[in-house]
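Notebook B, p. 112. Complex prediction, attempt 2.
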Amino acid sequence: MNLWIRLIIYLLAGPIVGGLLVGWDRRISARMQSRLGPPILQPFYDVWKLWQKQNLVARRPQNLYIVLFLLLVIFSGALFFAGSDLLLVIFALTLGAIFFVLGAYTASSPYSFIGAERELIQMMAYEPLVLLTPIGMYVVTKSFSVHDIANHGSLLVLALPGVFLGFLYALVIKFRKSPFDLSSSHHAHQELVRGITTEFSARTLALIEVAHWYEIVFLLGWVYLFFASRPLLGVCASLGAFLFVIFVDNVFARLKWPAAIRSSWAVALVLGFGNILVLSLLQG
Amino acid sequence: MAGFGKSPWILHYDASSCNGCDIETLACLTPLFDVERLGVVNTGNPKHADIFLVTGAVNEQSKSVIRNLYEQMPEPKTVVAVGACACTGGIFRECYNISGGVDNVIPVDVYVPGCAARPEAIIDGVVKAVQVLEQKHRAMRSNANRDQTLYLPAELADAPEILALQRIAYRLHEELYGGEENVPPLMETLPELTEEFSKTRFVKAVVNGKLIGSARARPNEHAAQVSRIMVHPYFQGRGIGRRLLAEIEHALQNDVKRFETAVGGKSEENIAWLQRQGYRIVQIMPAAPADTSVHLQKERA
């Protein structure tokens, strides 16, 4: 498919699919708690409402940071779907996440401060796992380019089961789901008011929501990459991974931050690094 | 479609309740009632909330908290008083520490009676509040666009309304300057404002008989001190401030040669706005504490 057509499809369909997935998430979570749950379109209703509210701002640069956050998330997704370099995608995504944290720091409220600090801790927790993924893919395919990896022909997950499980672990942290919803929780927990998003209201909050939608689509695309040689299996695996994250969210209580870091680094070392080590020993 | 009906986010605050109404409020979230199916989210963050749900009577300690939470909520917003105590003070209304219902502190839109209020009644109250929310949103959007805005000289009888508007319009400066004691417009009293009327010219902007904007200028020998150009937050960004400034300058153009004004150094947006209206910075003076006062002026056309 033409590169530009693919990008335009991503830009337009990304938020729609992401929003529907979030709606699905809320509904399934509700069903798991034997509730009826909101309509599937609820995230769109929320963003539409937020767009019309008065935007209260504590410090003006905070909104600029959020716009940059959204742009970088879209940019890293666009790089990914354009078939560019996976490492570049990670750097763009990390920079975006840093802008989000800076926005929360700028707002100078104690709640968003703690939220921002915890977000940094979460980033420290998932970053090794996320970084090991392209390295593992490189060991198998000898390329960092998404295009080459997608067209490699072999089922990557068979060679990289440990890296794949590690990536699922990172996904739970990245989506801010229990047990790793440290910086901001989706549910009615209120110990940090609303963590990292406390000081953002109205349109700015809507932008954060939309960035989250793009992020979901693009990270599930990454899951697809492990199964890229069998497209149907890939789509099922992506949705299965999302379902898995929702399930984990509903059965676990929140962990403390040292546990989050320790466990994710242990997973990165044992599953991720171990997988790559074994693979390179076998190849060598 | 305004969208407020599909996603009312609620902030729940317990003013001094016996917890009866709180438990019933939280019962609304349980599988039996599951208000999330209506899009309701219990946020716990005033900056995300649309509906402020207060239980219990107001006492001296919760008063300032209620006012603070209310002011941190973005417009449009509604307040629901849940239970007999929140509505009127209930059986506690004659206690020495109780000021009465929530409407003693902030405007209440919906009253839910009951002791304790039943979850069904609370959900009904929230549905009513959503209707009010949509009404307020319509008012925010359409008033200034559809209805004619009248620009008139203000009279002594307008003083209380101007003062009320001033409290709303300058509220955002409170955080900027670190407390209302650093924002003179928030500290002005009615007698002070009434006295101003003897020396100062006032203009007002009126929509549907309600005062939504005002500006004033005090003529000296050659110059006029323009100050307090304010517009209600619902009506900002529609050129009303620009018209008010033009009106006050027009009213004094035969008496003075130039117009002067002074703005706090942290109000960068206001300074930029004044520069767009033809004012230029002539002097920046230090002002207490850790702030500057920026003086601007404009020659008469």
